[in-house]
Write a structure and sequence with these properties.
This protein has 396 residues and is of the alpha/beta class. It folds into 2 domains: 216 residues, 3-Layer(aba) Sandwich (Aspartate Aminotransferase, domain 2); 143 residues, Alpha-Beta Complex (Aspartate Aminotransferase, domain 1), CATH 3.90.1150.10. The protein is 39% helix and 15% strand. It is built from 13 helices and 14 strands. The strands form 3 sheets. Strands 1-9-8-5-4-2-3-13 form an 8-stranded mixed sheet, sandwiched between helices. Strand 6 and strand 7 form a beta hairpin. Helix 2 packs parallel to helix 8, helix 3 crosses helix 4 and helix 8 packs across helix 12. The structure holds pyridoxal-5'-phosphate. Pyridoxal-5'-phosphate binds next to helix 3 and helix 4.
Length: 396
């Protein structure tokens, strides 16, 4: 058999001979922005034009009245919780399948995380379980839109109004998405963005909190301003974010086109036995004039009953050998923390299922176009064709 037919993990030539696409890649506009920082000295100043200009640009983009820049998305979640008066002894509801730092932030304030399961169709927080999670200590809920999907905000906001808790909307993975005609992160009482090194807008580190409620913004400012700024974003970081924000919309559309193509092609890919090894989450994505998803990761469900006999982790290892950045998703929060730390609603079967079966494709490949999409599918096919030998390779 020729080397070209073997999966890369078995010694074949990777179908994608290019290295993994670089992120953030090459941005002439960012070079210009950094040069401007050098010329006007703002690279080395506490205050300059860039943070102020970015704040205004983010306010306009999201149609909110207040944006507070900060040091990371993780810090932004903490600030958002503090902004809605979460204190020690309170409870904060979040999905059992979510970003680990969100759980840790609740603990950092001295509050208790209350975990609810996720919806089996969308793998996002199951909002129908929200009411069962509420107690007289509930102060807030953290809602994260993950892996290209979305949590329906209307029932969450209705429940919040009925029970008097606040909603922190984590749009770190959905930056620039449109849900029901508004930007992700603007339907809750306070929204959160990340500008971390892998994210759709990046300054290596960084984040922001957004709100239309002046009293929430005021509380956050009181907490961060201690004679000096305690959680700052720098002038230079703000400068490199501005040109990226200008192109976010255009790039989100390119990524969405790629995800649609990829999902169609993957749906047609079946094993010899006729089962579908990868089910794209995109079936549950919002579409329409008022809705457009954004993809930091593309969520895929690995079918554990597939006839190839491959495990998720072996399959993703073989895909990475083809230079496709496909990795296991989050661990479910109930499985990686001591039971003393949190309360749950029920047994969390769907979160536990996702802990074992979700795969996520990292976004940079989505800017590459149709050739890359076909390479991904051809990689899946050839790994499945050689499933028995791939399964027998050592795990690493
Ligand atoms: C990335 C991310 C954050 C924040 O991350 P930082 O790296 O601290 O900026 C928060 N929530 C979710 C869902 C994320 O994906």
């Amino acid at each position: 058999m020729s080397a070209s037919e073997l999966p890369a993990i078995l010694g074949g030539t990777p179908l994608r001979t290019e290295a993994l696409p670089e992120w953030p890649g090459n941005w002439p506009e960012v070079a210009d922005a950094l040069n401007a920082c050098l010329s006007d000295g703002s690279w080395g100043k506490y205050h300059g034009p860039n943070c102020e200009a970015l704040t205004e640009q983010l306010n306009n983009f999201h149609n909110v009245t207040e944006t507070i820049l900060c040091a990371s998305g993780t810090a932004a979640v903490e600030l958002a919780l503090r902004g809605v008066r979460v204190e020690a002894g309170d409870e904060v509801i979040l999905a059992a399948y979510d970003f680990k730092a969100n759980f840790q932030n609740v603990l950092a304030i001295g509050a208790t995380p209350v975990l609810v399961d996720i919806d089996p169709a969308s793998w996002q927080m199951d909002v129908s379980q929200l009411e069962a999670a509420i107690s007289n200590k509930t102060k807030a809920v953290i809602v994260s839109h993950l892996h290209g999907g979305r949590v329906p905000m209307q029932p969450v906001m209705e429940s919040a109004a009925r029970h008097g808790f606040s909603v922190v909307e984590d749009a770190c993975q959905a930056t620039g998405a449109m849900f029901d005609g508004r930007r992700a992160g603007t339907a809750g009482h306070v929204g959160v963005l990340s500008f971390g090194g892998s994210k759709l807008l990046t300054s290596g580190r960084g984040g922001a909190v957004m709100t239309d409620h002046p009293e929430i913004a005021q509380r956050i400012r009181l907490f961060t301003q201690r004679g000096n700024e305690a959680y700052p974003l720098s002038e230079m970081q703000a400068a490199v974010l501005r040109p990226q924000l200008e192109r976010l919309e255009e790039r989100n559309i390119v990524r969405w086109d790629s995800v649609r193509r990829l999902s169609n092609q993957l749906t047609q890919l079946t094993s010899a036995q006729g089962d579908q090894i990868l089910r794209p989450l995109v079936d549950a994505c919002p579409v329409g004039d008022e809705d457009r998803p954004a993809f930091f990761k593309v969520g895929l469900q690995f079918d554990p009953t597939n006839s190839t006999g491959l495990s998720r982790d072996k399959f993703s290892q073989a895909m990475r050998a083809e230079t496709v950045a496909l990795n296991p998703g989050f661990r479910s929060l109930n499985r990686i923390h001591s039971k003393r730390r949190f309360r749950t609603v029920g047994e969390l079967p769907v979160a536990n299922h996702c802990d074992e079966h979700v795969l996520v494709l990292h976004h940079p490949i989505l800017l590459e176009g149709d050739v890359a999409t076909r390479q991904i599918c051809a990689s899946v096919e050839r790994i499945c064709r050689h499933a028995a030998e791939v399964s027998a390779t050592p795990v690493c």
